[in-house]
Amino acid sequence: MRVLVTGGAGFLGSHVVEMLEEAGHEPVVLDDLSSGRRERVAARIPFIEADVRDVVRLERHLEECRPDTLVHLAARHFGVRESHVDASAFEVNVSGSQSVVTAAKVAGISHVVVASSAAVYGELCGEIADESHPMQPLTPNGAAKLAVEEFLQESCRDQHMATTILRFANLYGPGSTSECESAVHAFVERISCGESPLIDGSGNQTRDFVSVRDAAVAVAAVVESRMTGTFNVGTGMETSILELSASVAEALGVVLPTPRYRPSRPNDARRSCLDGTRLFEAVGFRPATELREGLAETVTSQCSVAATSTGLS
Predict the structure, then answer these.
(1) Chain-centre distance of CA 277, in angstroms?
(2) Following DSSP, what letter does each residue of 248-291 receive, concatenated?
(3) Among 57, 92, 179, 187, whose Cα sits 20 to 30 Å from the Cα of 249?
(4) Residue 128 maps to a domain
(5) Between 9 and 176, residue with greater pLDDT
């Protein structure tokens, strides 16, 4: 099966491309390289450098490569602080997604998989969020993801194009960069240098951390099964930011430096945790990587990259 992956040179996208190829599919990458990195994609993989907002070029590229499935992961990533002062993330993510869906319909693509986020839920109303949880995003990023979901569902309601929405929990793992806005990446970067981790607010806020490799397995499983609907991709386990910083120090084999506390970020959810039961029942996917194992792999990868970049390897 030929699969076009927008944002395929990004953090999640590059892992998805690798997983699709391992499963015997033919991935094609489309990325504007604004945050993605060309070296993340093997030279043998067809690569298209283009902006997802350019619907005319998208239609032409889709006509040329004729994919069976389109996996839309391209997005502009901003942290909670930045997203409140830079509206370009909303414009890029929403307009770009609209262009992708429009071009996919014109090209007659039969299945589109779109990345969403736990941010669409906002603050948890109960112990855990399943797909029926109220959607009350607290940030522009969450609002943008919700707008994309609503556009996709409305646009494809009367079309012969199957759609799948995947709401990802907080991703971490090998290949992350500072642009990914990953708490894990930031902690590894600072603690490995003996610097204090920066904690927003009390640090007692919790998140559901899922390995990027597991997330890529979930995408590949959905592509393979062509299962449609809306699904959470998470572990169902909460970890506080303070606990995460301690776990990163443990993975590094060092004593955790005394954290430095900053004011809470605007509209930062106190808790976030996703119920992945629906996806397990649909395609048999369940995250296989425990946080301790995933952090050890992340530390090894990130420190290796840092050593190489400084000529210490």
Answers:
(1) 19
(2) HHHHHTSPPPPPEEEPPPTT--S---B--HHHHHHH-------H
(3) 179
(4) yes
(5) 9
Q: Which amino acid is located at 12 in the chain?
A: L
State the CATH number of the domain containing residue 95.
3.40.50.720
**Ramachandran region, residue 210 (left: φ > 0; alpha: ψ -120 to 50; beta: rest):** beta
Q: Tell me which amino acid residue 162 is.
A: A
Q: Please tell me the distance from the alpha carbon of residue 49 to that of residue 254, in angstroms, as a whole number.
A: 42
Give domain status of residue 311, yes or no: no
**Residue 61, domain extent:** 2-172+210-234+273-289
Q: Are 100 and 72 in contact (CB under 8 A)?
A: yes
For the chain, the domain total comes to: 1
Q: For the segment 109-166, what is each residue's pLDDT rounded down to a tens digit?
A: 999 999 999 999 999 999 999 999 999 999 888 999 999 999 998 877 766 789 999 9
pLDDT of residue 83: 44
In angstroms, the CA 30 to CA 61 distance is: 9
Please give the pLDDT value at position 163.
94
- Does residue 284 lie within any of the structural domains? yes
Phi, psi angles (nearest 5°) of residue 176: -70, 155
Minimal CA–CA distance to 308: which of 39, 10, 77, 19? 39
Tokens 């990130």 locate to 302
User: Residue 31 falls within a domain, yes or no?
Assistant: yes
CA distance 123 to 120: 9
